[in-house]
Predict the 3D structure of the following.
Amino acid sequence: MAADRPAAGHVHPPTEIYEVSRAKIREFAEAVGADSPAHIDPAAARELGHAEVIAPATFPFLVVHRASSRVLSGPEWGLANAQLVHTAQRIVPSRPVRAGDRLAVTLHVESVRRLAGRDVVQMRGEVRTEGGEHVVDTFMTFTAGGPDEKETGR
């Protein structure tokens, strides 16, 4: 891993706003087989105490993945041409994502290390509304690259 890449503790600035719509929630729910009426019917969502339709619990991954992919393939990381594998994901919500939310992601580098000849990057994606309300944290682990020539003896 290059010495000038961000280290643990680095915080990438918030992303552009991602607008959550009923259509995006419906498409995601259909794609992942989430069949709760609260994902498509405002009346069903209200019966559960929500002001608007809510997204499946894994929906935030969509927003955070877009942000992390851009960051990791950008000039600071230079992993655009490397083999990049998303190896772990954990989602810790404060509240469900709702239609009408305008979300931004701030990426925090939790750790960067070399393991078994690969770069291992752990990040936390902090998702907040445009107004600053915390919605969810996602914890992700990525591995990239392969053994260096020094490590393989070639």
Summary: The mean pLDDT is 89.
